[in-house]
Amino acid sequence: MSDWTEMNALALGDGIGRGEIDADKLTETFLEKIDEHPLRDRIYARVTADRARAEAKAAAERARIGRRRSRLDGVPVSWKDLFDTAGIATEAGSAMLAGRVPSADARVLRNGAAMGLVCLGKTHMSELAFSGLGLNPVTATPPCVNDQAAVPGGSSSGAAASVAFGLAAAAIGSDTGGSVRVPSAWNDLVGLKTTSGRLPLEGVVPLAKGFDTVGPLCRDVADAAALFAALDGVQPPVPGRAGGLSGRRFARLRTIVEDDLSPAIAEAYETVLAKLRAAGAEIVDFDFPALEGPMGDAGVLYTAEAWAEWGALIDEKGDLMFGAVRSRFAAGKEVAAATFLRAVERMKAVRAEWARATAGVDAVLCPTTPNLPPEAERLMTDGEYYVSENLRTLRNTRVGNLMGLAGVSLPTGTPSAGLLLNGAPWGESRLLRVAAETERALA
């Protein structure tokens, strides 16, 4: 029983299915560990113990009578605090939303519950999801599993910490510019960024609706595939081929994403590429200068949408915000409509060009982040450093959002260094198969 909190989600679910794990006891084990954990209040904004126990009791009864809803029926997971939960506060890491209690669950949470997922609680996050660092002095800054003095990555910061510290079997987060993939990379997890529009956003507190996506943070690719399926209400995709990476063709993106890499990141990336070649993969260099246009427009695209969503509330209550995040929102206040629309049209044109250029590869590779997790204290005391590190942290992952891609971040074996596989839009099932094969090659 003591090992349950370190097991993969599917292993727990299969144990329930075989009658080796009692869903009630499993949830109690997680709730007890959360309650006793010294970092609990930095990871969970709210623990939903009553709901978890009720859901676990129902899962245990379904297992007893042979009516399980999925392989994950009875598995306890955490939810980022921007997914609405009926009757339970959902505040998106912001004092401006204190006391906000939705009347209904987010649609993806309803989907997950229908597949038997047990909701352990709501995890801390970057304020209104507008930072890739995970620093939030307004509510809490969760720890990084590899360095508790460093930030964990954001904005799904508590989501990653809940899994990395064994306080959830898996977590559900959101990704607008890297918010699932960055904390997954920095906490040595697998993170899936879905295509915009692939999973429903009903009941998800928005940041920039044109880029917002939902995705899981897990211990391995099989869990990510199963969680993705549960959120979508479908059966999980087939695992990777028995033949592994032989015959797979990857593009190594050279434009922008390899600039100014931290030495540990650069070394880990070269080691990973060598392993993939040894496993039979072909890796070709991919230069794509057209990417510089949308990357240069990113400030306009993101801040204009974010300000349109939150500007009125910030004008009213912005003094309650963390100043660095408020300033980022405010950058969108003066963006002209014509400037924004031209940037959108340029992005669409480059997306089409990207699709043509990458049609012959299984995935486009790059380091998930160019940097390692920075220290929280310096970020709090050095405003220029906060801005530069936040933009640097999100640089590589933002490619996938701007190009409208699906993406998976995998751990590399080097602490806090992730490998990012970018796949075609709406190609999650295929990308997860390739990611599973890549995961095995890196094991």
From TrEMBL:
GO MF annotation: an example: transferase activity
UniProt-listed Pfam families: Amidase (PF01425)
Keywords, comma-separated and alphabetical: Transferase
Domain Amidase: 26-432
PROSITE patterns membership: AMIDASES
Protein name: Aspartyl-tRNA(Asn)/glutamyl-tRNA(Gln) amidotransferase subunit A
Natural source organism: Roseivivax halotolerans
